[in-house]
Amino acid sequence: MSKSKILIVEDDQFLVKIYQTKLESEGFDIELALDGEEGIEKAGKFMPELILLDLILPKMNGFEVLKKLKTDEKTKNIPVIVLSNLGQESDVKQGMELGAVNYLIKSDHSINEIIDKIKKELEKK
Question: For the chain, how many structural domains are there in total?
Answer without folding.
Answer: 1
